[in-house]
Amino acid sequence: MERIYLDHAATSPLHPNVFDKIIPMMKEMFGNPSSIHSFGRESRRFLDEARERVAKAIHAKEKEIIFTSGGTEADNMAIIGAALANKHKGQHIITTEIEHHAVLHACQYLEKIGFDVTYLPVDEKGFISVNDVQQALRDDTILVTIMYGNNEVGSIQPIEKIGELLKNHQAYFHTDAVQAFGILPIDVNTLQIDMLSASSHKINGPKGSGFLYVREGVPLSPLFFGGEQELKRRAGTENVHGIVGFAEAVEIAERGREEKQKQFLKFKQIMIDTFKQNDVSFSINGSIDHSLPHILNVYFPGTNVESLLVNLDLAGIAASSGSACTAGSVEPSHVLVAMFGKDSNKVVSSVRFSFGYGNNMENVKEAAETISSIVKRLTS
Predict the structure, then answer these.
(1) Segment among 123-137, 146-160, 198-212, 315-329 with least mean pLDDT
(2) How far apart are the first and last CA of the chain?
(3) Could you tell me which residue ranges the Aminotransferase class V domain spans (predicted)?
(4) β-pair type (65-68, 210-214)
(5) CA neighbor of 321 nearest in space, from 344, 343, 296
(6) pLDDT value at position 298?
(7) Of the residues 113, 288, 314, 325, which is catalytic?
(8) How far apart are CA 305 and CA 347, in angstroms?
(9) Within this chain, do residues 205 and 261 fall inside the same structural domain, yes or no?
(10) 107 labelled catalytic
(11) CA–CA dist 222, 85 (Å, integer)
C-alpha cells in the first residue's frame, strides 16, 4: 500500500536539495558564528548569506531578520516582545478568534499580566472585516496581530488594507505568515507590515528554524537573555545548519512559487471533482477563490472526524483536522467554531487536506477515490 501524505500544512518533507545543503554544514562547519577565529568566521559567512537570501524573499533589509527556532518562537517574540517594549504607550492588543495557538496563547498570557486583548470574529468563510479592525482600534492600542492565511481553512486576510488602516496609528502590525510564506508573494513594504513570522518546516526546510522580520525602528523586548546574537535581540548560538537549510528551502519555494500555486489549485479541483463523481455528500469550509492554494478543508455530513481520520490513516492517507484528541474526547477546532458556532455539525465532521512536495495528479486522484469510498462506507 502506497502511503499518500496530504498534511503539508502540519509539516512538510525535507527537499532533497535542502538535505544536500545541510549535510556538509553539519560535517564540516561546526564553528560558533560568534567566534573570531577562522572556524567561527566560516560559519558567520554562511549565516550572513542565509540572512541575505531570506530578507530578499520578503523585500526586507538583512538586519531586519531575526532567526528563531520556528514560527511559535517568532510569534511569541513579536507579540510579547512588542507588548512589553511599548506598554508605556498603552496596553491594548487586537487579534482574531482564528489565530494559531502560538498567537492566541501569547495573547492570553499578556491578558494575565494586565493587557487588554480584543478578539475579532470572522464570517462563515473565515474572513475578518477591516471595518471591525477599525472599530476596535483605540488610542491605547499598541499591537494588531492578524494571520496572513489561516492554517485550517486557508482564508487569506485583507493584510494590505489593514496595513493601510494602521499607517497613521501608533499600533504596530504583526502577521503570522507561517502558512502563506513560500506560497504567496510577500512584500513587507507594500503591505506595510511591521513584523512577520515564518517557519522552515512548512516549506520543505528543516524543523527547528524560522525567522521574525522586525521593521527597523520597531522596539522589541527580548525573550531570551544571554549572549548578543542576532544584533542583541535573540540570545543563543544560532542553529547555523538549520538556518542555511531554511534559506535553501526559501530559494526553492520562491523559484517555483507560481507553478506550485497552479498545481495545488489543480489538486483541489481533482479532489472536488472526484467527490462529485462519486456522489459524496460534502461542502467546502472557507472560500475556494480567496484561500491558500494548498489547503482544502472539507465537511462530510454524517461522519465523525475522529473515525474518519483513523480510517484514512489505515488506508495510508495522512490528513488532519483542527480537533485535538484528549483523553478519548474531541475538542472542536476553534477556527470552525469561530466560523460556524460550537453547535454546528461542521466542527466535528470536517477534515483538512493540504498539498505539497511529493504530491502529483495521480496520487491526489487516488487519495480522493479512497476518501470517497471511506466516506460513503461510514455514512451508509
Answers:
(1) 315-329
(2) 25
(3) 4-365
(4) antiparallel
(5) 296
(6) 98
(7) 325
(8) 9
(9) no
(10) no
(11) 9
